[in-house]
Design brief:
The chain is mostly beta strands and 225 residues long. The chain contains three helices and 14 strands. Helices cover 9% and strands 32% of the residues.
C-alpha cells in the first residue's frame, strides 16, 4: 500500500529563542531528534516527518516513546540548535501487540505534533512518504542521531530481508539514539524505521527494522484519521 505525498514546500526557518539558527543543508529537514522537555537534556531517539492529511505526523520506533508527556521533536537539529523549532508531541499511536507485550514485530509508532507559530510541521519541513507495501531490497538512506553526537549520521546502503518480519542494513556507528531513524528510498519513500529485532540491533554496525506492511498501514490509518 503506497500513500501519495504532497510536494515539498519551501522551508521556513523558525526561531526557538536561539538567535534564528541556520539549517544544515546536509541534514534532511524532515529528520530530527527527540528530546525530553527541551534541548538541554540531550536527545534520546530519532524521528521523521511523514506525509499525512493533518500535516502533523512523525514516525519513530515504538520503544522510543512510551507516553507523550514532555516529549518534543527538533527537525534538522545540529550543534545544539533547532533551526525549524521544537515541536510538542501530542498523541502517540502504537499497536496493541506492542503495548501489551512489546512485540518486536510491532516496534513502530506514529505521533501527532502540536502546531507551532500557527503552522503544521509538514508545511515547514516537508515530509517523506510512507510505503507500507511490505517491500524490502531498496537502496535506502538511513539518517539518525547517536546520543553522544550533536549532528546525525547518514548511510546509504541496500536494505535486505533478514527474517520473516524484518530487514537489515549494515551501517557503521549507528549507536544508541539512532532508534527511530528513517530508511528512505531515492524517491522519498519511507520503507523502514530503525528498531524491531533486538531493539534495532545488538551492535552499532548492523541495524534492523520491521518490514512496513499491514500492521504499519493500519497504524498509519489510525494516526491519519
Amino acid at each position: 500500500m503506497l500513500f501519495s505525498a504532497a510536494a515539498l514546500v519551501s522551508i521556513v526557518a523558525l526561531s526557538d529563542a536561539r538567535d534564528d539558527p541556520a539549517p544544515d543543508p546536509d541534514i534532511p529537514s524532515y529528520v530530527g531528534a527527540l528530546f525530553s522537555n527541551d534541548l538541554d537534556g540531550g536527545h534520546f531517539c530519532t524521528a521523521s516527518v511523514v506525509h499525512s492529511k493533518g500535516r502533523d505526523l512523525i514516525a519513530t520506533a515504538a520503544h522510543c516513546l512510551g507516553d507523550a508527556e514532555g516529549k518534543v521533536f527538533a527537525p534538522g537539529y545540529h550543534d545544539g540548535q533547532a533551526p525549524y523549532g521544537t515541536w510538542t508531541v501530542e498523541k502517540i499511536y502504537e499497536d496493541k501487540s506492542w503495548l501489551d507485550d512489546e512485540d518486536e514485530d510491532a516496534d513502530i509508532a506514529f505521533a501527532t505534533l502540536a502546531p507551532l507559530d500557527g503552522k503544521e510541521i509538514e508545511d515547514v519541513t516537508g515530509a517523506n512518504t510512507l510505503d507500507a507495501s511490505g517491500r524490502t531490497g531498496d537502496k535506502v538512506t538511513v539518517t539518525g542521531y547517536p546520543s553522544d553526537l550533536d549532528h546525525p549520521l547518514s548511510c546509504t546502503v541496500e536494505a535486505t530481508a533478514d527474517h520473516d518480519t524484518g530487514q537489515r542494513v549494515d551501517c557503521p556507528d549507528f549507536a544508541t539514539g539512532t532508534s527511530g531513524s528513517p530508511w528512505v528510498t531515492e524517491d522519498g519513500r519511507l520503507v523502514g524505521v530503525l528498531g524491531g529485532y533486538k531493539g534495532g540491533g545488538e551492535t552499532d554496525d548492523v541495524s534492523y527494522s520491521i518490514v512496513l506492511g499491514e500492521l504499519t498501514a493500519r497504524l498509519y490509518e489510525q494516526a491519519n484519521g
